[in-house]
Structures are given as structure tokens and as C-alpha cells.
Design a protein that fits this description.
- The complex is a heterodimer.
- Chain A contains 15 helices and no strands.
- Chain A has helices at about 5-20, 20-50, 60-65, 70-105, 110-115, 115-120, 125-165, 170-180, 180-210, 215-235, 245-260, 265-270, 275-280, 290-295, 300-325.
- The longest helix of chain A has about 40 residues, at about 125-165.
- By secondary structure, chain B is α/β, with parallel strands linked by helices.
- Chain B has a six-stranded mixed beta sheet with strand order 5-6-7-3-8-9, sandwiched between helices. Chain B has a four-stranded antiparallel beta sheet with strand order 11-12-10-13. A three-stranded antiparallel beta sheet of chain B has the order 2-1-4, with helices on one face.
- Classes of the chains: A mainly alpha, B alpha/beta.
- Chains A and B meet through helix 1 and helix 6 of A and helix 2, strand 5 and helix 3 of B.
């Protein structure tokens, strides 16, 4: 059998997928399914209500409204349809955040608890490869699956909305031409590398706790930064560096715990550069979700300091994985 | 013969106990070594040191590698079954085979499948659906298909019924072991491994107190059963241990000449468990 390093990593990642199929695959699929179901139910409810109050939103009226729209209004409709596509992703994104958070916490702890670490350690795999494969799962595999599922759910959502409108005499194709499904897709896929880099400190911290804790990694992971944050706030320690305590909460506690939630970088990005908001205000394509704006993060030291800290934490996790002796 | 394991001055200090206390030993290729000791004597710590799972001080060479620094390389040549039921509960038989086949350069898939064909295991079955005995069968199938030079077994049959236990050692001997392989086994069920061992190591309080091959053990240790009238004379020869059976006394001697003992009564070869009990006297007191 060939066992090149690449091959080993591939099979390690595959193993993680086998073990966490539920979180990586079924969680986004079920979330997407529930989202679509709720939408269909909502649309049915609206149709029933609409039929009862025939004077509002009646078929003829809507067609008339659209026919009277000018170019600016049309772009608003396109944007609304894009929102429909993004909204499927939004829900899946929240689920993905939870999946990645708890995956990282358990990744290097669960097998120590059930002692199967002794089996994994009986194979010729370096601890660095093991940790690397788990980082790949958290930062690449899980988001890629979520984005693919999100795009499919988004497309379905778009079609459902368009079909519903077409029952009211609106031309489906004309409507779909107004949306920008490909731009939405590119934005979502393109966000993955940013997510990887942005989430690294949190992934590193959670995995360090996972590899190091003798028990209750969750408590370590959450209590330690929060308790430190409280101390910093009470004693005004950040004052030494001429920074408010909120700086610590924002840049240490939040980055260390919550940056596994996709979109947390967008929020931070907005906070740091309000100009972005203005420059795109009223524009048709969502400033904040635009890839260009996301990649703006690459120019900020916040991101790269986080990456370096994340890598250091992961090195610590590898060390613990190698030497933690509690079997 | 070349040494598979050479240890000298091996010491491992836990917080308040010394699990290995300046221990030195050597294990040759092609041997089946029983590492026997009471609970907490340092058996598992010794095995963990050999496998590079724990840090220690002293010198240790396993197949030419330092287990602390070259663990990944070492594990290509070493297999171990630590305790029972350490296979991950979520894994399927087919997944376990696929994974090991692609990760381990010395794994022979055909061999593994041939072995599994003789069991009731199904390829879609998950470990969590198996009994303890079946889990060990799967683990053994994976390990036996790996052409390793050293196999370390730490209580491999703990909690199994007698059928599985017999089968385990039988497969190991018939289908796995050869002169290029070395097996180290720790167990409390001494009677079961006694007949397959080539070497015996007793460990107590982190020290090796007996290290001999089975032939030497047979020559060194002799049990003699004497009548009550001879008991005092026998006691004068300074036996390791004495016990009473049916009004007769059985004495265990270390290094007393066979002829001398034959004059006193019926002599026989002591079982490893009798030897163990005699050697470990007072461990828990």
C-alpha cells in the first residue's frame, strides 16, 4: 500500500468524516431542509390568507406593480432574491458554527475519554498529522459541505419564491434574471479561505483545551477566557496598555471562542471600518457579503496576528497530543 | 541473536510513586516474553515507555529507535493491543480495514479478511454492536495482518470468556508468531500464557525481580513435596515458600540442587503462578 504523507492526511480526514458524518453532513442538510419546509409552509399560509383577503396582493396587482418598476426598483427585487438565497445559508451558518465549536472541543478529547486513542496511537501516524487532519476538517471540510448544501438550499429557495410569484402572473425567468445566483455562490465559496484564517485562533484554542484537559474541556475552553476577561475588566488591566477592557473581550475572548462562527469576521470587519458600510450603502450587492470586502480583512493585522496565535495554540495541541499520558 | 529491546536505568516517577525504578533488561528477537507483576508494579508503565506513550528517564532502544523521539517510525514495526475494547465504538469493520490498509505500509488486507472470514463479524457491523470478544477478534485480525517485528499485548484477554481467551492465544501462536517476531504480554491470567512463553519477567515495585527463559526457570526453581517428618530438615535449606496440602508440605526452592531435594521427597516443576505468589509475597502488606 502507498502511504505518502498526502495519502495519510486524506485517510485521516476521511476517518473524521466517518466519525462526524452527523455534524458535518446531516446537520446542514437537515437545517437546509427545515428552512425550506418552513418557507413553503409560510408561503402556503400567506397564499391562504391572501385568498381570503383578495383585495391585498392579488395576482393582477402584483403584475402591475412589477410592470411599473423602473431599473432601480428592479435591482432591489434582484437584491431581495439574493437575500432569499443568502437566508438559507445564514441558518446553516449558525449550525456550522456550533458544529465546528463542539467538534474542535471533542476532537482530541473524546478518544482519550473512551481510550480509543490507544488504538490510533498504535498506528504509524504522527501527532502532527492527526491534529492537522482535524484542523482541515474544522476549517475546510465542514465549511465546504455547509456552503455546498447552503447553495443548493438557496437555489431551491430562489426557485420556490419565483414559482410562487409566477402563480401570480409574474414571469419566472424575468425574475430569476434579476437575481445574481452566481455572484452569491462565488461570494459564499470565496468566503471559505477567509473563514479558515479567521477561525484559526478559536480552532487552536479549542483544540488545545481538547488535547490538554484531563476532563471537561468545555469548562476550560470557556471559563478560562471569560474569567480572565472579568479579571481584566475589574482591575482595569488593559489600562496599562491604554486600551479599554472591551478590547480584551473583543480581541481575545471573542476571537478565541467565537471566531469559529462564520460571519463573525464580517461583523468585526464592519466594526473596524465603518467606511465600508457607507461606500456600499444602497448598492445592489450587499457590501458586507461582497467578496472584495471580505478579502479586505487580509490587509488587517488583526487577522494575521490571529493566524499566528492560532498556529502557536495548535503547536501546543500537538505537544499535548504527544505527551498527555492518562490512558 | 539481536536484541529487540534494550533498557538501562529506566526510571519513571509519577507524583508520589516510582513506577519504574532504575530498571534494566533486554529482550531478544523471536521470544514470547511474559511480563508478570502485581497491580501497580509498573507493567503498563514499562510497556508505555516501550511504545513511546510516556516520558521517562534512562536509556531505551526499541528496534533501533528511541521511542521518545522516533515514535512514528517505530510504530511501523510495532503493534499493540492495549487492554480490550479500545477500538473506537463508531467504526465499522470495513472502515477499520480500509483505514489501516491505507495508513499502515505493512498491512496485508487479504490476510486480515481471511482471518475475519473465520469469525462471525460482518463488514458493515459497528464496534458498538459487538461483544467484547468480537472486538478483540477484530483487533487481532487487524494486528495479525500487520507484518510487525514486535507485538505488545497489555492484558489482551481481560474480561473475555474462556473460549475467546483460548482462541486468542491459539491464533497468536499458530498464525502469527515466528522466529522474526517478538511478543511481550502482560496478564494476570498466568496459567493461560504459561505454556506459550519462552521467557519470564517478574516485575515488582518498578524493578525486574526475575528475568529468565523458561528452561532456566525449570532448572532454577524446584518444588518438593515432603512428609511432615522431613519438613524441618527441608525448611533448613531456606525455601522461598511453604504451603500445606493434604498433610504434606510443599516447598519452593531457588537454586538448590535437584539431587539434594530428590532425597527429601517428590519433586516437580513449579507452575508460574506458584512461583509468582512466592516471589511477590508481602507486596500488599
Amino acid at each position: 500500500m502507498k502511504t505518502s504523507p498526502f495519502n495519510t492526511i486524506y485517510w485521516l480526514v476521511k476517518r473524521e468524516f466517518w466519525e462526524h458524518r452527523g455534524g458535518f453532513f446531516w446537520a446542514p442538510v437537515i437545517t437546509g431542509g427545515i428552512f425550506l419546509l418552513l418557507n413553503i409552509m409560510g408561503i402556503i399560509t400567506a397564499e391562504v390568507l391572501g385568498a381570503q383577503h383578495a383585495n391585498f396582493g392579488a395576482s393582477g396587482g402584483l403584475r402591475q406593480v412589477i410592470s411599473q418598476m423602473d431599473a432601480g426598483d428592479m435591482s432591489k427585487v434582484g437584491m431581495a432574491l439574493d437575500v432569499a438565497m443568502y437566508s438559507a445559508m445564514a441558518l446553516i451558518t449558525v449550525v456550522l458554527g456550533f458544529v465546528v465549536f463542539f467538534y474542535c472541543l471533542g476532537a482530541l478529547y473524546d478518544d482519550r475519554r473512551d481510550r480509543s486513542v490507544l488504538f490510533w496511537k498504535s498506528l504509524p501516524i504522527s501527532d502532527t498529522s492527526t491534529v492537522l487532519s482535524k484542523v482541515i476538517c474544522a476549517s475546510v471540510l465542514a465549511p465546504v459541505i455547509a456552503v455546498v448544501v447552503g447553495i443548493i438550499a438557496g437555489m431551491l429557495q430562489l426557485i420556490i419564491v419565483a414559482l410562487t410569484l409566477s402563480f401570480h402572473g409574474v414571469n419566472v425567468w424575468q425574475l430569476l434574471m434579476l437575481a445574481h445566483p452566481f455572484r452569491v455562490m462565488v461570494n459564499l465559496v470565496g468566503y471559505i479561505p477567509i473563514y479558515l484564517l479567521w477561525a484559526l485562533p478559536a480552532i487552536g484554542w479549542l483544540m488545545l483545551c481538547s488535547a490538554g484537559a484531563r476532563s471537561k474541556p468545555f469548562l476550560w475552553a470557556v471559563a478560562l477566557p471569560v474569567a480572565t476577561g472579568l479579571l481584566v475588566t475589574w482591575f482595569g488591566i488593559m489600562g496599562v496598555f491604554n486600551l479599554p477592557a472591551s478590547w480584551f473581550w473583543g480581541n481575545v475572548v471573542q476571537r478565541g471562542l467565537l471566531s469559529v462562527f462564520p460571519g463573525s469576521s464580517v461583523i468585526s470587519n464592519l466594526k473596524d471600518s465603518p467606511v465600508l458600510l457607507n461606500s456600499n450603502a444602497g448598492d445592489q450587492d450587499f457590501g458586507a457579503l461582497n467578496l472584495f470586502e471580505s478579502y479586505h480583512l487580509l490587509a488587517t493585522p488583526t487577522l494575521w496576528i490571529g493566524v499566528i496565535v492560532g498556529l502557536a495554540l495548535l503547536a501546543g495541541a500537538v505537544w499535548f497530543r504527544r505527551w498527555r499520558d492518562d490512558s | 541473536m539481536s536484541a529487540v529491546i534494550t533498557a538501562s536505568g529506566l526510571t519513571k516517577q509519577y507524583k508520589n510513586t516510582r513506577a519504574l525504578d532504575d530498571t534494566s533488561f533486554q529482550i531478544e528477537a523471536g521470544r514470547i516474553v511474559g511480563l508478570i507483576g502485581p497491580n501497580g508494579a509498573g507493567k503498563t508503565t514499562a510497556l508505555k515507555a516501550i511504545l513511546g506513550l510516556t516520558d521517562f528517564s534512562g536509556q531505551l532502544n526499541v528496534l533501533g529507535f528511541d521511542p521518545r523521539k522516533q515514535r512514528d517510525k517505530l510504530m511501523e514495526q510495532v503493534c499493540f493491543i492495549a487492554d480490550v475494547a479500545v477500538l473506537p465504538r463508531w467504526i465499522k469493520v470495513s472502515e477499520a480495514i480500509d483505514f489501516v490498509a491505507h495508513i499502515h505500509p505493512r498491512f496485508d488486507r487479504k490476510k486480515c479478511q481471511a482471518f475475519l472470514a473465520r469469525t462471525k463479524l460482518q463488514s458493515g457491523q459497528r464496534v458498538r454492536q459487538m461483544s467484547k470478544g468480537m472486538i478483540v477478534q477484530l483487533h487481532l485480525a487487524l494486528v495479525m495482518a500487520i507484518d510487525a517485528r514486535l507485538l505488545v499485548l497489555d492484558e489482551p484477554t481481560l474480561g473475555l470468556d474462556i473460549l475467546y481467551r483460548k482462541q486468542f492465544y491459539q491464533h497468536l501462536l499458530e498464525d502469527y508468531f515466528d522466529e522474526n517476531k517478538t511478543i511481550i504480554v502482560t496478564t494476570h491470567q498466568v496459567e493461560e500464557v504459561e505454556h506459550i512463553l519462552t521467557d519470564l519477567m517478574f516485575i515488582r515495585d518498578g524493578k525486574i525481580v526475575l528475568d529468565a527463559d523458561m528452561d532456566a526457570v525449570g532448572e532454577r526453581f524446584i518444588e518438593v513435596m515432603v512428609n511432615a517428618d522431613q519438613a524441618d530438615a527441608t525448611r533448613a535449606l531456606n525455601p522461598l515458600n511453604e504451603r500445606q496440602v493434604f498433610g504434606k508440605s510443599i516447598f519452593l526452592f531457588d537454586g538448590v540442587s535437584r539431587a539434594q531435594l530428590e532425597a527429601l521427597g517428590e519433586i516437580r516443576r513449579p507452575s508460574v503462578s506458584d512461583l509468582f505468589v512466592a516471589t511477590m509475597k508481602g507486596t500488599y502488606e
